[in-house]
Structures are given as C-alpha cells and as structure tokens.
Design goal:
By secondary structure, this protein is an alpha/beta fold. The protein is built from 14 helices and 18 strands. It has an eight-stranded parallel barrel. Strands 3-4-1-7 form a four-stranded mixed sheet. It is globular and about 70 Å long.
Amino acid sequence: MAITLKVRILGADGNPVSRDRLERLYAADLHFEPFWRESSVDSEGTVTIATTGAPAALHAQVPVPFFGDVWVTADNEGEGYGQVSSVIDFVSEAAKSRLADVRRLSEGQPSFSAECRGHIAAAEEHLALAAKTADSQKKAYRNLLALSHALWAGELAVVERARRAIGRRRRRGFLFGCNAFGYKPNDPYPEYFSGLLNFATLPFYLANLEREEGKPDYRRIDEILEWCEQAGITPKGHPLWWGHEAGIPKWLEGADWETAQKHCRRVVSRSVSRYRGRIKVWDVINEAHDWANGLNLTHQQEVEITKICAHTARENDPKAILVVNNCCPFGEYAADGSVYKGPRHRPTFTPLSYMQAVMEAGVDFDAVGVQIYFPWRDLFAVNKLLDEYARFGKPVHITELGVSSGPWGQQSAQQSWFAWHGPWSERVQADWAEWFYTIAFSRPEIRAITWWDFSDPAFIQNGGMLWEDHTPKEMYHRLKALLSGWGYEGSRSQPRVRRRPQQADMRKAA
C-alpha cells in the first residue's frame, strides 16, 4: 500500500534549501532502486513524497559545510521508512544513517584511525547538541555539521578498511587503463601512457566507424592497436553497439526492430572476427538501460539486443571477455524517467534493474561494466553501491571514470553545484582518484579500472591525467606511486607479485 512521507531539508541558515533541490528529492528502496517520483512542495518548503509502502530511503543533494555539495541518503539507520507521522528532518536523519553505516562497517574490524574516530565523536556530539537547541538556525547548522563529520568518518572508514585488505593480499593481472583515443606517435602521450597503464580502450563507435553503410574505416583503430601491441598494453574494443544518438550513424536512425537486429549482428560479427586473437576484451553493448535508447526499443527488446550482441561476439571469439556496460550507476534518472532524449514514460530501467533482467534472460557475458563520472556522492556511498553490482556474481570492470581537476570554466549551473572536499583542483582530483582506486582495488570482484580520458581536452572538463600540452597532473604522479606500491609499473613490466597459494583465487585475471 502506497504511503506518503513529509520531509524538510534545511540549509545552514535554518531555511529550506532551494526549491529545485526540494523538487529533486526522491525515494528509493534500500538497494538504490528509485520509486517513481510523486511529490509536492508547500509554501513552507516541506516536501510531501509518495513511496510504494516498502521500506524507503530518501535521497537529496545537500550543500554540506566542510565536505562538499553532494547527494546523501537518509534510510532510518538502515531500516528504511514506513509510515511516519512526523515531518522527517532529512539532514539529521542522513547523519544518523551514515553513522549507523560506519558502526556496521566497524564490526569485527580493527580500530579505525584517530581521525576517523574523531569524526564519529564529533558527529555524535553535534547531533546531541542540535537535539537540545531551541534556536532553529543553530539546530539546522548543528545537524549539517553532524552530517559533515559523519560523511568524513564514512569515507575514512572505508578507505582504511580497503588499505588493510590490500595489505593482506596481492593481485595478479589487474587492468589499469584509459581510453587511448588521443594517441599520436612521436609524442609524449604514448610514453606517459605506457609508463603508468597496461590497458587501453579503442574506439568502435559505429557513427564514426561506418559513416556510410557497409563501408567501415578501421584505420584509426589499427593504428592505436599496433602501438598497444608494441607497448605490451592490453586493448579493449568499445562499444560494439550503442543506441545513443552519438553512436547511431545517419543510415541507422529510425530503424525498426528487425533492421536493428540485422545490423547489430552484422557489425558485431565483423569487428570481433576482424580482431579475433588481437582484441580480447569488448564492451559488447553500452548504456542499454533506457539511457541510450535511441531506437525506442521496449525493455524486452533492450534485453534481447544485449543477448544478440553477446551471442554474436561469443560465436566469433569464444575466448573473448565480454562486458555489458552501464552508466549513471545510481539510477537517479529513473525517478522521473529523464534519459538522454528527455523524459520517458514509466517504468524506466535503471542499470541495476536492467542487469537483473539480463541475468534472468541468461545472457552469456563475462563482466558487469560500471561507469562512474562525477558520482555526486561520497565514496562510502559509491562503495555501498558497488555491493549491489557485485551481487550478480560476475567480475566488475570500472569501464569509464572521471572527475575534474578544475577550474570549471563555462559549465551548466547544475554541474557547478557538485563539489567534493572543496572546489575541484589538481589536488582534489588526485585525492579522489587515490581513494577511489584504493577502494576499487581492494574489492576482489573488480578486475579493471579505466579512467576515461588520459589527456585533456576530456569528456569531463579538465578530467584528464595530463593537461592538454601533455604535462602530467598531480593525479598521474599520485597514481604512479600508488600502483607501484601495489606491484604495478605500467605496461613495460609485469606485476611484481609474491604468490600466496591459499589466496590464488583472488588473483585471477579479468
């Protein structure tokens, strides 16, 4: 039975946050699956939002002092919200929920650092002080400070746990990569690339590969692939099929279902057979969870075309590693069906619901691909989400990844909202990358991490590891030191690994 919740989100001045933020609040289940948003905002800034009646989590973007402007979650300390008679103070509840997360994470773990424990104590203290405060503005600010400390505590806890896990084992065959779209011979780019990375993504976007039907041009792919082979870099083809308008050539626009299937089989078969034995990893399909549904397929057809891609690739190279790639991993867009072509009718596939349908359909693939751009979340939440992708029982590849090194320049107002530990800069980008790579490398199901752009200009503004003149950023040097400590030295040498037979299963290649 559907129920409604009343929610208040107060800023540091004690007043409700902006109306557009209130209107974007959404409810979800406890596994990040959004409910269809049905909400209203009254004149006092109170949000009334409907849920399905199942235990609900609430998600909203909040400017958090001394942490960033991020999406956070209130989930009643992990229990979810049912019928609640009073108005939910979102910020206070989000702080309590994250503290409960940290307590669960700490069970059976060695003590966290003094810094982490200090943030936990500070969060608890500010919550207690807020509860005793009659002044509405002071109460709101205390709750925000509590949330800030709780978010810091959560990130520190998950990073410290990851570092301990890495220290207990060694991994063989891990893939660290970027796309190699900017490769040029006789340029600093390939030297810096091979000095850090052992994995490169090559461009198979059909809109560029086959501008004229039946006349593919593989020359650029061949050039990059030859360099990868000479440098000892593992290549990956991306993507064999992509329904986004940026991936659909003019001759395929508006194709019916029968035509789409025919061309899908043809182009997948042609590329995989051409590079059989040379390219052994493929993103067989990209963003097919409604986000890139440029051919207006039904959900059943989206799953079926995923099966066609995987089956055709498997027929042409039985030994290839096949990745089903997904973007927008938290699926916020499904709260109102806003995909790249604009709002759609309900229901809308999220990456998680699409992957569940793919699994139930028996699609033959090897790894779940997850893109993480500007996740707009703290890293504890990102790690928690990765648990959901791990439940499919497949290896996970972080296929596309990026945050900016700043400055923003000309960006939309919505993009400029998000900040993590301060405005984006070389230092903040390097900090984020170090923490994310540490978390991801510690997770046994994750077998590959691909930062998307190696050099600026990048898909994410200033998101490359190198500036446009190919000068390395702080992130490049930070990752080089980090990976070296784990036994990885780019493509020029094999990982230095001490074999531990009792943990051999943790070191299987992707």
